[in-house]
């Protein structure tokens, strides 16, 4: 009888460890409108991207942005050194989606694995942002220009949030999209270069 109980306990322990080990790996996603840096890499539009070209959905890092989360200069890669090419400003030459300040826009995520969600947040760089330098918190407006709370619900595989692009913006900027997962310590990050 003891051997059966031990076998059950070991089996349950293995199952629990498997669930815990894969908790964050079950959820992945990226923005494709406006086109994110990871999508430009995956499509081959931008070369020399390293591993991100094979897994654009995997830019996962600590949640709690902006008070916590990836370090300054490592935000576009979610703090993940495997995807450091996303933080390289490439002399400000990343392809950019053309936008008009104040226009209505559909911000779209492709979720390759869905997960319970706290919210989606969208930040934009301040006027005077230098696109030739890695992104820092000081470069971003202090508050997101759009927040979409989810209250733990699981989103669809394609999620579009209708909103408005901030007014009075000119030149090149970055829109940082953050998808905060409700039941893991992580969030997903996507930087989209835009031109007003």
Automatic annotation (TrEMBL):
Pfam families: LPMO_10. Keywords: Signal. Residues 28-194 form the Chitin-binding type-4 domain. CDD domains: LPMO_AA10. PROSITE patterns: PROKAR_LIPOPROTEIN (PS51257). Gene3D superfamilies: chitin-binding protein cbp21 (2.70.50.50). Residues 1-27 form the signal peptide. This is Chitin-binding protein. It comes from Streptomyces syringium.
């Amino acid at each position: 009888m003891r051997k059966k109980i031990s076998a059950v306990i070991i089996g349950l322990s293995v199952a629990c460890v498997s669930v815990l080990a894969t908790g964050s790996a079950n959820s992945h996603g990226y923005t494709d409108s406006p086109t994110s840096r990871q999508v430009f890499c995956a499509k081959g539009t931008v070369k020399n991207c390293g591993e991100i070209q094979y897994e654009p959905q995997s830019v996962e890092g600590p949640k709690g942005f902006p008070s916590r989360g990836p370090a300054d200069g490592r935000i576009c890669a979610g703090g993940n050194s495997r995807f450091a090419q996303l933080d390289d400003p490439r002399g400000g030459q990343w392809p950019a989606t053309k936008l008009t300040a104040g226009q209505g826009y559909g911000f779209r995520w492709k979720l390759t694995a869905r997960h319970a969600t706290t919210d989606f947040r969208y930040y934009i760089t301040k006027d005077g942002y230098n696109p030739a330098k890695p992104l820092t918190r000081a470069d971003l407006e202090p508050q997101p220009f759009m927040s979409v709370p989810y209250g733990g619900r699981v989103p669809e595989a394609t999620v579009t949030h209708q909103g408005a692009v901030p007014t009075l913006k000119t030149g090149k900027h970055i829109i940082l999209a953050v998808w905060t997962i409700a039941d893991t310590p992580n969030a997903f990050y996507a930087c989209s270069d835009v031109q007003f």
